[in-house]
Protein backbone atom coordinates (compact mmCIF):
# COMPACT_ATOMS: atom_id res chain seq x y z
CA UNK A 1 0.00 0.00 0.00
CA UNK A 2 2.83 2.27 0.81
CA UNK A 3 4.32 1.74 -2.60
CA UNK A 4 0.95 2.22 -4.15
CA UNK A 5 0.54 5.44 -2.29
CA UNK A 6 3.92 6.68 -3.39
CA UNK A 7 3.19 5.66 -6.92
CA UNK A 8 -0.16 7.45 -6.76
CA UNK A 9 1.59 10.56 -5.47
CA UNK A 10 4.13 10.27 -8.24
CA UNK A 11 1.38 9.83 -10.78
CA UNK A 12 -0.48 12.84 -9.36
CA UNK A 13 2.72 14.85 -9.43
CA UNK A 14 3.39 13.73 -12.98
CA UNK A 15 -0.18 14.59 -13.92
CA UNK A 16 0.28 18.08 -12.44
CA UNK A 17 3.52 18.42 -14.35
CA UNK A 18 1.72 17.17 -17.43
CA UNK A 19 -1.05 19.72 -16.88
CA UNK A 20 1.50 22.46 -16.33
CA UNK A 21 3.40 21.37 -19.41
CA UNK A 22 0.12 21.15 -21.35
CA UNK A 23 -0.80 24.64 -20.17
CA UNK A 24 2.65 25.85 -21.18
CA UNK A 25 2.29 24.12 -24.54
CA UNK A 26 -1.06 25.85 -25.05
CA UNK A 27 0.52 29.18 -24.13
CA UNK A 28 3.43 28.48 -26.45
CA UNK A 29 1.04 27.50 -29.22
CA UNK A 30 -0.87 30.75 -28.66
CA UNK A 31 2.39 32.74 -28.70
CA UNK A 32 3.47 30.88 -31.84
CA UNK A 33 0.06 31.54 -33.44
CA UNK A 34 0.35 35.26 -32.56
CA UNK A 35 3.88 35.35 -33.91
CA UNK A 36 2.85 33.56 -37.08
CA UNK A 37 -0.01 36.05 -37.48
CA UNK A 38 2.45 38.87 -36.85
CA UNK A 39 4.87 37.34 -39.38
CA UNK A 40 2.01 36.99 -41.87
CA UNK A 41 1.03 40.64 -41.32
CA UNK A 42 4.66 41.68 -41.70
CA UNK A 43 4.92 39.66 -44.91
CA UNK A 44 1.76 41.35 -46.22
CA UNK A 45 3.17 44.77 -45.31
CA UNK A 46 6.50 43.79 -46.87
CA UNK A 47 4.75 42.74 -50.09
CA UNK A 48 2.75 45.99 -50.06
CA UNK A 49 5.93 48.03 -49.46
CA UNK A 50 7.70 46.03 -52.19
CA UNK A 51 4.88 46.84 -54.63
CA UNK A 52 5.00 50.47 -53.52
CA UNK A 53 8.78 50.57 -53.99
CA UNK A 54 8.46 48.99 -57.42
CA UNK A 55 5.83 51.56 -58.36
CA UNK A 56 8.01 54.38 -57.03
CA UNK A 57 11.03 52.96 -58.88
CA UNK A 58 9.02 52.92 -62.15
CA UNK A 59 7.83 56.46 -61.49
CA UNK A 60 11.42 57.51 -60.75
CA UNK A 61 12.65 55.88 -63.97
CA UNK A 62 9.90 57.61 -65.92
CA UNK A 63 10.76 60.94 -64.26
CA UNK A 64 14.46 60.42 -65.05
CA UNK A 65 13.66 59.58 -68.68
CA UNK A 66 11.38 62.60 -68.90
CA UNK A 67 14.08 64.81 -67.38
CA UNK A 68 16.64 63.41 -69.86
CA UNK A 69 14.23 64.12 -72.73
CA UNK A 70 13.68 67.66 -71.48
CA UNK A 71 17.43 68.21 -71.09
CA UNK A 72 18.00 66.92 -74.62
CA UNK A 73 15.24 69.14 -75.98
CA UNK A 74 16.69 72.10 -74.10
CA UNK A 75 20.15 71.31 -75.51
CA UNK A 76 18.73 71.06 -79.03
CA UNK A 77 16.87 74.37 -78.63
CA UNK A 78 20.02 76.00 -77.24
CA UNK A 79 22.12 74.61 -80.11
CA UNK A 80 19.52 75.81 -82.59
CA UNK A 81 19.46 79.26 -81.00
CA UNK A 82 23.26 79.36 -80.99
CA UNK A 83 23.38 78.44 -84.69
CA UNK A 84 20.77 81.09 -85.44
CA UNK A 85 22.73 83.64 -83.40
CA UNK A 86 25.98 82.72 -85.17
CA UNK A 87 24.25 82.99 -88.53
CA UNK A 88 22.84 86.38 -87.54
CA UNK A 89 26.28 87.52 -86.34
CA UNK A 90 27.80 86.46 -89.67
CA UNK A 91 25.04 88.28 -91.54
CA UNK A 92 25.57 91.38 -89.42
CA UNK A 93 29.34 91.21 -89.91
CA UNK A 94 28.84 90.89 -93.67
CA UNK A 95 26.39 93.78 -93.61
CA UNK A 96 28.83 95.84 -91.52
CA UNK A 97 31.64 95.10 -93.96
CA UNK A 98 29.43 96.11 -96.91
CA UNK A 99 28.33 99.24 -95.08
CA UNK A 100 31.95 100.17 -94.28
CA UNK A 101 32.91 99.65 -97.93
CA UNK A 102 29.97 101.78 -99.07
CA UNK A 103 30.88 104.42 -96.49
CA UNK A 104 34.49 104.53 -97.73
CA UNK A 105 33.26 104.80 -101.34
CA UNK A 106 30.87 107.57 -100.35
CA UNK A 107 33.66 109.40 -98.51
CA UNK A 108 35.91 109.15 -101.56
CA UNK A 109 33.05 110.29 -103.80
CA UNK A 110 32.34 113.17 -101.43
CA UNK A 111 36.02 114.17 -101.34
CA UNK A 112 36.21 113.98 -105.15
CA UNK A 113 33.01 116.03 -105.48
CA UNK A 114 34.31 118.59 -102.96
CA UNK A 115 37.58 118.91 -104.90
CA UNK A 116 35.67 119.29 -108.19
CA UNK A 117 33.32 121.84 -106.67
CA UNK A 118 36.22 123.72 -105.04
CA UNK A 119 38.03 123.77 -108.37
CA UNK A 120 34.87 124.87 -110.19
CA UNK A 121 34.18 127.50 -107.48
CA UNK A 122 37.71 128.84 -107.84
CA UNK A 123 37.29 128.86 -111.63
CA UNK A 124 33.98 130.70 -111.31
CA UNK A 125 35.55 133.20 -108.90
CA UNK A 126 38.40 133.80 -111.35
CA UNK A 127 35.93 134.28 -114.22
CA UNK A 128 33.77 136.54 -112.06
CA UNK A 129 36.82 138.62 -111.19
CA UNK A 130 37.78 138.74 -114.85
CA UNK A 131 34.23 139.68 -115.76
CA UNK A 132 34.16 142.41 -113.12
CA UNK A 133 37.51 143.67 -114.39
CA UNK A 134 36.15 143.72 -117.94
CA UNK A 135 33.00 145.43 -116.67
CA UNK A 136 35.06 148.13 -114.90
CA UNK A 137 37.15 148.63 -118.05
CA UNK A 138 33.99 149.04 -120.09
CA UNK A 139 32.50 151.43 -117.56
CA UNK A 140 35.73 153.44 -117.65
CA UNK A 141 35.62 153.40 -121.46
CA UNK A 142 31.95 154.48 -121.44
CA UNK A 143 32.84 157.21 -118.98
CA UNK A 144 35.70 158.23 -121.25
CA UNK A 145 33.37 158.30 -124.25
CA UNK A 146 30.80 160.36 -122.35
CA UNK A 147 33.35 162.89 -121.30
CA UNK A 148 34.84 162.91 -124.84
CA UNK A 149 31.40 163.51 -126.35
CA UNK A 150 30.72 166.13 -123.76
CA UNK A 151 33.96 167.87 -124.64
CA UNK A 152 33.32 167.63 -128.35
CA UNK A 153 29.84 169.08 -128.15
UniProtKB/TrEMBL annotation:
InterPro entries: Odf2-rel. It is found in: Cell projection, Cilium, Flagellum; Cytoplasm, Cytoskeleton, Microtubule organizing center, Centrosome, Centriole; Cytoplasm, Cytoskeleton, Spindle pole. GO terms for biological process: cell differentiation; regulation of cilium assembly; spermatogenesis. It comes from the Eukaryota. The keyword Disulfide bond does not apply. Signal peptide: none annotated. The keyword Coiled coil applies. Keywords: Cell projection, Cilium, Coiled coil, Cytoplasm, Cytoskeleton, Developmental protein, Differentiation, Flagellum, Microtubule, Spermatogenesis. Residues 4-141 form a coiled coil. GO terms for cellular component: centriole; centrosome; microtubule; motile cilium; spindle pole. PANTHER family: OUTER DENSE FIBER OF SPERM TAILS 2, OUTER DENSE FIBER PROTEIN 2. Belongs to the ODF2 family. This is Outer dense fiber protein 2. It comes from Eudromia elegans.
Amino acid sequence: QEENKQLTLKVEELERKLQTTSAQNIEFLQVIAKREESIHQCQLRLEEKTRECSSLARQLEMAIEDAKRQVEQTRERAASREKAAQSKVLDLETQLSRTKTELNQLRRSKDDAERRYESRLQDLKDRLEQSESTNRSMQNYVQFLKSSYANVF
